[in-house]
Structure prediction request, 227 residues.
Amino acid sequence: MEKERIETGIPGLDKLIQGGFIKGSTILLCGTTGTGKTIFSCQFIWHGLEKGENGVYLALEEDKESIIKCAQDFGWDFKKYINQKKLIVESIFPSSLEEIKDTIREFIRRVNAKRFVLDSLSVATMGWKESESIPIIRRSIFELAKTLKDLQVTSILISEIPEGENKLSRLGIEEFVVDGIIRLHYLEFTTGDIPRSLIIRKMRRTDHETDIFPFEITEKGIVVKKG
Ligand SMILES: Nc1ncnc2c1ncn2[C@@H]1O[C@H](COP(=O)(O)OP(=O)(O)OP(=O)(O)O)[C@@H](O)[C@H]1O
Ligand SMILES: [Mg+2]
Prediction:
């Protein structure tokens, strides 16, 4: 299989992962609240739009306008591309993962999207409890990832981590199904140094860097500093 790379659009990140995400791969973007998951994902979508790759941003908790405004703050004019039918930003309140999968399929086909963001997978799997059958849950998440693969989009699935927890996902299953994992950190009570950092926790078929890399949120978005 070819390893065509999709640039992330985050300055400093691509060189840590051999040029970008593998085309068609599914990446879990983990972090506690306010670590920059939504900004990172908007930046990924924006970079694609500027390169002629259409996108879909599906929000499950945040309303559509707040995603558009978040992008606008960094000068990323999502509305322009929505009007040109190259981008869909939508917020839905689904009743099942089936419904989410159907919506994703429809949206991605509608604009022939090459990049997709689900904000967030944690909300998508909210209907399940840890006590439910692990094989069934695992299969459902696998099928979601397979849906995205079949559509040949490169995807970011956002994973919200509760404060103080050392998990990568809500159920502890999601990380095994995805191709890559990037974790964003925010260090409280620090003085001087940049409080934000990221780690590439997994990137299948990629000889990736393993250090902790500080990053900043600038007026142009996220910028990874040299480690
Ligand atoms: N214009 C800006 N310049 C610098 N930093 C900013 C700017 N806008 C937001 N931030 C920082 O980014 C944080 C929010 O980032 P973002 O919305 O991507 O987080 P998140 O991980 O998606 O959070 P949540 O889990 O609550 O959705 C803010 O708390 C703030 O620290
Ligand atoms: Mg967010």
In short: The first helix runs from residue 37 to 50.
